[in-house]
Design a protein that fits this description.
Layout: H1 2-35, H2 39-51, H3 55-67, H4 75-87, H5 91-103, H6 111-122, H7 127-139, H8 147-158, H9 164-176, H10 180-188
Length: 194
Amino acid sequence: MKKLVSIICLLLTFTINMPAQNVDKLFKEGKALYEAKNYAQAFPKLKLAAEKGHKKAQYRLGRCYEKGRGVAKDEAVAFQWYTKSAAKDYAKGQYALAMCYKEGIGTTKDHKKAVEYFAKAAQQDNADAQYHLGKSYLKGKGVTADEKKAKSWLSKAVNNKKGGKDILDKLRKKSSEGDKDAINILKLLGYSVK
């Protein structure tokens, strides 16, 4: 009897984990096709994984709809998929949703909601979210201006191991082109400006 119970438990564990593995496999296949710019083949795999609740697939499917990759461009649908991904506490989904609110992509502009989602993603160490959150504090958009908080988040962004160097390079490039925001940010962070 004990053996039978053990076998049943083992089979149940296997069948419960199997669907999750299949969804992960679908996502990985879809992501690889997406990164290879084979959007037409990536889309159905990402869609199926997203519909089964895979938070990374939901984010990536949002990108497909936002950019028109493998499917007709539809910013409202992109916004819906980003919302689902963000609700599962996925930093990239939260960042994408924040950008939708900031830029009015698939929804009306709402700087307060943008800051809310930038903050959620920034706290998960998303460099782009840290940058935009810092910039929001610097300009007082969606939040009360606070130079100390701006400096803290901007510093975290440029020092972030994942993406910080790219952010700093973009700031330097923009500053060399005369962009006042980039110049002010670099000065605030103690970088020399040419």
